[in-house]
Amino acid sequence: MIDTFKALAASIPAVSQAKTADFELVYDAPAETTLAAPDLRSSAAVWQEMFANAQTKIDIAQFYVANEAGSRLDKVIHTLRQAGERGVKIRFLLDQKGVKMSTAETIAQLQTIPGLTLRVIPFSKLAGGIIHAKYILVDGKQSFVGSQNFDWRALEHIQETGLLINSGRVVTQIAAIFDHDWHAQPLLAAGEKVPESGTDWLPEDLRRGSYLIASPRAWNPAGIADSQTVLPQLLASARQRIRVQVMEYAPLSCGEKRSRPFYAVIDNALRAAAARGVQVELMVASWNTGQPEIDWLKSLALVPDVTIKVVTIPEASSGFIPWARVVHSKIMTIDDELAWVGTSNWRGGYFDHSRNLELVQNDAAMAKRLNALYLQLWQSCYAKPLRIDADYSEPDPGGLKRDPSGSDADNR
Q: Which domains, and CATH codes, for the chain?
């Protein structure tokens, strides 16, 4: 019996520091799974704390909003309302395409909060994509960036990862992005041109320090590096191992009329890393097994030194929940030294046309904790090796086959 316990303990990844002076790792596990991480705070707890401590202003940018009475998000919105009632000014930026994914009741609920101004931005008019970044700013001193949508399901039935940020430099940069998009909204709504602001600036050494990168490049404020430029360079710097978890991976982009043009930027970099002997581990959600995505995954899995797993979260005991029960984190580690936490899926449209934010931390302790979180899922019963010879069924995350009248929204 003692030997059994020792073997079990040895199989559990070591947990390292999940909090530094500037960054705290935040995590949500789907209910009724074995994916809990007791040392990490949930986004609901962090958001409530941020709103409760706000003194003068709160800025929130989200793709869409969806609340449910009595949910964890409902409590978050209650705390946001309390902030508005005590005089805190709140700016809420919502993407126009995300409105159809939002619930009208939640939008109405937000609009009744004192001091809250809601703007709906047609970001597609600017760059062809969406506001896919999910982030919060409080008093210009603290920020949260993560995969968590402002959706009750994200806080209860989806696996999510984010960062609470106290770095003054990074928070200032995130605030500049919010201000850019907030002030672009009325121009876009009026059909006016928004001047490009992006540069080719890069940190001196991508494998040192912690920094923010963002997309799309053309509309990044000065001094913020472009995600599409940095990511391939980071992958090229890998010497031993790359671990990636995203909901969706494919060298494709929806394009006009869903033409799905080829988008090889990331795929080429991963294949090149594997070709020089770097071990590449990739986890994707079961929502990523439709056509033609699954064929691209199988193609990548054929490359030596590449291992891919597909993660399936079982239905809740309460029954089917549309657009839930999925892994949604967007994380990466490189060489057990670099930690990446962001808002982008790894396919076309996210790094080239949509607003997304990614945090890069060259911090071995944070990378170790993120690795442990990764391995918890990788070694779980939910993650299964991709089978080259298998015919995968078309995913139905929205329950459209159950209810053909439902929404066909994606891009979560």
A: 13-385 (3.30.870.10)
